[in-house]
Amino acid sequence: GDSVTQMEGPVTLSEEAFLTINCTYTATGYPSLFWYVQYPGEGLQLLLKATKADDKGSNKGFEATYRKETTSFHLEKGSVQVSDSAVYFCALRNGGGGNKLTFGTGTQLKVEL
Amino acid sequence: DTEVTQTPKHLVMGMTNKKSLKCEQHMGHRAMYWYKQKAKKPPELMFVYSYEKLSINESVPSRFSPECPNSSLLNLHLHALQPEDSALYLCASSDRLREYSDTQYFGPGTRLTVL
């Protein structure tokens, strides 16, 4: 079945550091890929998405490129802020009924001054 | 506007109580979802409604009873819950009318504690 693998956290960075959170997936067909962010005590917010190979999703300085050849969708940001501290979930949606999302385990990011 | 609202924000209930969680969206979406999220885990799908009809039940115990009274509202009725049901309950919605417009938008969640 479909699966998503994320790097283990927590990831701790200093403010203005470069961020990469790795995400790889296993799926048949051509899934859509998503990054969601969850701030402490809140629900999930869509951060960005890509629906086909070589698409780049971007939002709030975050970027991720859908790489079919490496089955990856790594999240990057050039300069993180303390306010980026949150849990980041990579997810995929494959074809078929139900519009089901398959989530990775989540990666906690802590940004320090 | 991509807002999904949920009430209440917090709920504490005993194992013999009956309570309900409410979710509302005004984006014209025709698919709505309930998820359960335990601490430090990803959300787990519970139910999916499509055009106000139950489409998916992920083998959820009958003490959880969903209801979709209209296209904007989704309820989750709770009865005889167990302490292990304590979790963050998330509602989401998506537009199923247009191809590739399958993004799910989540509400802020209801944090449920069962004593």
Helix content of chain A: under 10%
The radius of gyration over CA of chain B amounts to 14 Å
Describe the largest sheet of chain A. Answer: 6 strands, mixed
User: What distance separates the N and C termini of chain A?
Assistant: 41 Å
Shape descriptor of chain A reads globular
- Overall average residue pLDDT of chain A: 93
How much strand content do the residues of chain B show?
A: over 45%
For the secondary structure, the number of strands of chain A is 12
Q: Determine the number of helices of chain A (DSSP H or I, runs of at least 4 residues).
A: 0
Q: What sequence of helices (H) and strands (E) makes up the elements of chain A?
A: EEEEEEEEEEEE
Write down the overall mean pLDDT of chain B.
91
H/E series of chain B: EEEEEEEEEEE
Number of H- or I-type helical stretches of chain B? 0
Distance between the termini of chain B: 37 Å
Largest interface: A-B, 22 and 26 residues
Question: Strand content of the residues of chain A, in percent?
Answer: over 45%
What does this structure look like?
The complex is a heterodimer of chains A (113) and B (115). Chain A has strands spanning 3-6, 11-14, 19-21, 23-26, 32-38, 44-50, 56-59, 62-65, 75-77, 86-93, 101-103, 107-112. Chain A has 113 residues and is mainly beta. In chain A, strands 2, 5, 6, 10, 11 and 12 form a six-stranded mixed β-sheet that branches. In chain A, strands 3-9-8-7 form a four-stranded antiparallel β-sheet, with no helix packed on it. Helices cover 0% and strands 50% of the residues of chain A. Chain A contains no helices and twelve strands. With 115 residues, chain B is mainly beta. In chain B, the strands form two sheets. In chain B, strands 2, 4, 5, 6, 9, 10 and 11 form a seven-stranded mixed β-sheet that branches. In chain B, strands 1-3-8-7 form a four-stranded antiparallel β-sheet, with no helix packed on it. The radius of gyration of chain B is 14 Å and the shape is globular. The model of chain B has no long low-confidence stretch (mean pLDDT 91). Chains A and B meet through strand 5, strand 6 and strand 10 of A and strand 9 and strand 10 of B.
